[in-house]
Structure prediction request, 260 residues.
Amino acid sequence: MSGDTRNTASSCRASEVWLKDVTVDLRAQLAQGNALPADAPQTLSDRILELCIANDFDSLAVLRSSAANRGIWNGAILRVIEKIEQLWEDDGLDPMRVLNAFWTLRRAFDALSYDKVKAQAPGPDKPTVLIFTPAAEEHSFGAQMLMDQLLDLDLNAQLMLQQSRQTLLRALSTVHIDLLAISVGYDQSLWGLADLITDARAHSLAPKMPIIVGGRAFENGAEHYSFLGADDILTNHDKAPIRIHEWLRHSNKQGIPGHA
Prediction:
């Protein structure tokens, strides 16, 4: 079995666990709301599902503002959860599109819920983390999950998924980024990565910007990839948010966290 095949199988198992955990959590949040789910028009839940599959958060926000009340919106969300679960179980859609759809639904629920204060635009004191996946990457769900976790830590996390090196370098030369995280899932994306890291440093507006790499391509151990020139190589996804937070806290003070 190839490394990429093992990575894909492992990713599917981890994704299924994540999907089950988050559906339980989201249902619990709906049950605890001030307005319990009410019957919602089938057309509303169908439209929400369509926008989730398209990852169209802006249109979801517009649709949310047109919902009659909390109960109807929550009822539609509950129905969409059931539809997404059915798509997963029946293989009715590519698994990564199903996961991306649910990720969009979760983010929309968190941001657009009647019961939560809408997040304000990140202030100037909030560090900005840019999460980048190379153009050759077919799957980006891990990067999306990382963004969720960083937002929970009150960081300003932004995504650049499946983009070219030119797009990344242009962004770094025009926007102040405090930390660059590059997610790599497949071995082919390692080609040219060392040059990309060198160029990213040269183009960055932040002279001390840490560059961290992580993803399933590095599961064999960080020691095999020191040639890339990254400041840190993360082999454990669960520890990535805390490690990134440590880098942001120390990068302007002590240099490399965890080193003498």
